[in-house]
């Protein structure tokens, strides 16, 4: 696509469409959003898989319960099939369907599957289906796909030691997956199927369809709540509503766990299969890990680099957890925002692949704290809890899975779609050293420090006023730890379009962030080699010092915008979009 100069969507049509909705009576929930042209042109909505951007009226219908939430669709499927499922007895095998829960340790769905197999003295078969269409539709990065496939290899070896097979295949058509699972269960003589629930819209709707399809074919499908420490829907305000602000939600989360300690009980690992499992299902043990889809492949050099940085599997995840809690957790509250050193756990790739459960992380952190309520341990537990929070938000407001922000009115904001500015941001060539260092780290390491995630998202949305959804997509397509709920939540925070938005003072000054959290410029020098010879405080803003000569000589760009001017412009547009 050729570069486009300062293209922006007009907010007037969008604002007009929503402001007159109440005068027209019942809203037209099928009508696309007025800005849907830009969302398609710039790759925000993938039309191969999804309809145009939905209207704000449809978002409101999800909010007020006029439209059924996908979690309610799944619950209804269970309610409607209860008699059929209760009548289904055991057969020749039990199946656990792995998705984003690639571990033996503390896996509730897997524990349920093994217990059912053990109780009926039949083999447990594990299943994994790779869906290239899902991977593409959900914007999974090549790095995350590679991490998943490497983790599957380790999981297969661990299961094999227990005489449990892991059957893996690629299913080209995502819509065919429910029927394929039924066909495999019937082929293996399995009447019991288990899995863990994923809370994104596509996955909830697919599992609801699978519950019904399985029941029709004499298969009992049970999906466990395992991803979150506290199940979505368990926490509510005094008014009985879902929390939209983290702090009161977190207090409720901690109180709930204190009152319901069973939620912190970790699931046992599965035991061994009956000794004849290898004889009856020999061909399943010889299964190869699928190859990455063509559009998600890494070079051999990239694979080697990422494998060294993020070794796969739950053994590495648990090792990293223990090392972090032993060596860094006590200082975490003081050091977590300092970017030059590795002061965080870097466990997010393992949470994302399911090699480590959030529950395990919290239990281990509480054990390390020994009831002392140390600031470091408590601060880290709070960071882990953010993963729960954003999934709770996702379940209650599912339209955020549909290219909408929590505050749909900010979708109407007059965004820019300047390709040259977006390319400068994505390539780390904005002239703002901390922004550029962070983006280059992302492009090289497939990971980024949480503090800089906030800085670069604020910069894209507020300094450049580029549609935050383009940044959200870029992150997902490059992060090894890409998790939809957390990524969307983070971009909602940085762009002030999400929960607790506060757009009028949450505009990060990149230079101040740099001076505060990379005071010696060590992080910048590591990732921006053009500035390695710049000494002292000039590293944070070289062109305002004599150091600008070094920067210019080495080809470092001048700032592409003036922060103070951009801040004023952003405030004006946010006020306009919100009707102030």
Structure, briefly:
It is globular and about 75 Å long. It contains 27 helices and five strands.
Would you mind describing this structure in some detail?
By secondary structure, the protein is mainly alpha-helical. It is built from 27 helices and 5 strands. Helix 14 packs parallel to helix 17, helix 21 crosses helix 23 and helix 22 runs antiparallel to helix 23. It is globular. The N terminus is likely disordered. Keywords: Chromophore, FAD, Flavoprotein. Belongs to the DNA photolyase class-1 family.
CATH homologous superfamily placement of the largest domain: DNA Cyclobutane Dipyrimidine Photolyase, subunit A, domain 3
Mean pLDDT across all amino acids? 92
Examine the coordinates and then state which fold CATH places here, giving the name of the CATH topology of the largest domain.
Answer: DNA Cyclobutane Dipyrimidine Photolyase, subunit A, domain 3
Number of helices: 27
The total strand number stands at 5
Question: How many separate domains make up the residues?
Answer: 3
Keywords: Chromophore, FAD, Flavoprotein
Biased composition (Low complexity): 9-20
Site (Electron transfer via tryptophanyl radical): 415, 468, 491
Organism: Aspergillus ellipticus CBS 707.79
């Amino acid at each position: 696509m050729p570069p486009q100069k300062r293209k922006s969507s007009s907010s007037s049509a969008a604002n007009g469409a929503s402001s007159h909705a109440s005068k027209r009576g019942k809203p037209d929930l099928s009508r696309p959003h007025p800005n849907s042209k830009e969302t398609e042109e710039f790759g925000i909505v993938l039309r191969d898989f999804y309809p145009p951007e939905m209207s704000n009226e449809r978002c409101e219908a999800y909010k007020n319960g006029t439209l059924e939430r996908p979690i309610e669709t799944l619950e209804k499927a269970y309610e409607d099939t209860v008699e059929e499922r209760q009548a289904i007895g055991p057969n020749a095998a039990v199946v656990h369907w792995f998705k984003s829960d690639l571990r033996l340790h503390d896996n509730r769905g897997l524990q349920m599957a093994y217990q059912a197999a053990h109780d009926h003295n039949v083999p447990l078969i594990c299943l994994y289906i790779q869906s290239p269409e899902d991977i593409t539709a959900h914007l999974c990065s090549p790095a995350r796909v590679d991490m998943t496939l490497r983790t599957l290899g380790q999981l297969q070896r661990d299961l094999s030691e227990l005489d449990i097979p892991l059957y893996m295949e690629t299913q080209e058509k995502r819509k065919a997956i429910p029927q394929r699972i039924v066909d495999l269960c019937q082929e293996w003589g399995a009447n019991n199927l288990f899995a863990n629930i994923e809370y994104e819209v596509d996955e909830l709707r697919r599992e609801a369809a699978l519950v019904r399809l399985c029941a029709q074919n004499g298969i009992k499908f049970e999906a466990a709540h395992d991803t979150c420490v506290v199940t979505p829907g368990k926490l509510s305000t005094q008014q009985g509503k879902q929390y939209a602000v983290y702090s009161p939600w977190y207090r409720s989360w901690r109180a709930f766990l204190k009152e319901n300690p069973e939620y912190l009980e970790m699931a046992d690992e599965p035991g061994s299969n009956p000794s004849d499992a290898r004889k009856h299902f020999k061909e399943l043990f010889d299964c190869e890990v699928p190859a990455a889809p063509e559009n998600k492949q890494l070079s051999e050099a990239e694979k080697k680099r990422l494998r060294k940085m993020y070794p796969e599997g739950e053994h590495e995840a648990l090792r990293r957890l223990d090392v972090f809690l032993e060596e860094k957790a006590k200082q975490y509250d003081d050091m977590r925002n300092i970017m030059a050193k590795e002061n965080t756990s870097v466990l997010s790739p393992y949470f994302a692949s399911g090699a480590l459960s959030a529950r395990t992380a919290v239990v281990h952190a509480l054990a390390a704290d020994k009831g002392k309520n140390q600031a470091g341990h408590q601060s880290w537990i709070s960071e882990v809890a953010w993963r729960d929070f954003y999934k709770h938000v996702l379940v209650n407001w599912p339209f955020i899975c549909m290219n909408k922000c929590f505050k749909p009115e900010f979708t109407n904001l007059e965004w820019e779609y300047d390709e040259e500015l977006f390319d400068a941001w994505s390539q780390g060539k904005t002239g703002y050293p901390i922004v550029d260092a962070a983006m280059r780290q992302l492009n090289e390491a497939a990971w980024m420090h949480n503090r800089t995630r906030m800085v670069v998202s604020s910069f894209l949305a507020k300094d450049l006023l580029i549609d935050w959804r383009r940044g959200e997509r870029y992150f997902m397509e490059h992060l090894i730890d890409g998790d939809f709920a957390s990524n969307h939540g983070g971009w909602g925070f940085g762009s002030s379009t999400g929960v607790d938005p506060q757009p009028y003072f949450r505009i990060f000054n990149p230079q101040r962030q740099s001076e505060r959290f990379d005071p010696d410029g060590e992080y910048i020098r590591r990732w921006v080699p053009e500035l390695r010879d710049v000494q002292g405080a000039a590293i944070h803003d070289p062109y305002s010092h004599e150091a600008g000569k070094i920067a210019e000589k080495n080809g470092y760009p001048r700032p592409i915008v003036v922060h103070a001017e951009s801040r004023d412009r952003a405030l004006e547009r946010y006020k306009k979009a919100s009707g102030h």
